[in-house]
Amino acid sequence: MSKQNCWEFKKCGRQPGGEKVKDLGVCPAAVESRTDRVNGGLNGGRSCWAITGTFCGGKVQGTHASKMGNCLNCDFYQIVQKEERPNFKTAGYILSLIRDEE
Which of 15, 36, 49, 67 is deepest in the core (most CB within 10 A)? Predict the structure, then answer.
């Protein structure tokens, strides 16, 4: 099985052209090009835990700092971590990519 992006794994429908974009908007992870290919994902699809405004548990999450506790327990985060070992890119690395281009 190929590596999945968060919107494929979670089936949130918030990727561009997704079924829930009209109601919930496009997820920032799906269009965050600064993190493209990180952990083998498309845009922020495998680094969503470090991207502000992603959707989880039925609501939009806040900043990286405020949501990281939830993300550490997320089944998708744990799968990516396992699949990418020993080259898993941490939130600190991902945030450095985002900040470097701001």
Answer: 49
**What region, left, alpha or beta, does residue 31 occupy, with left being phi > 0 and alpha being psi -120 to 50 degrees?**
alpha
Residues 22, 45, 78, 100, CA torsion sign: negative
Q: Which two tokens stand for residue 19?
A: 């079924």
Query: What's the distance, CA 57 to chain centroid?
Result: 14
Tokens of 42: 């498309």
- Nearest-CA neighbor of 67 among 79, 81, 78, 53? 53
Enter the pTM of the model. Answer: 0.89
Q: How far apart are the first and last CA of the chain?
A: 35
- Contact residues for 11 (Cβ-Cβ < 8 A; gap 6+): none
How far, in Å, CA of 99 to CA of 10, rounded?
26
Q: What's the chain's average pLDDT?
A: 92
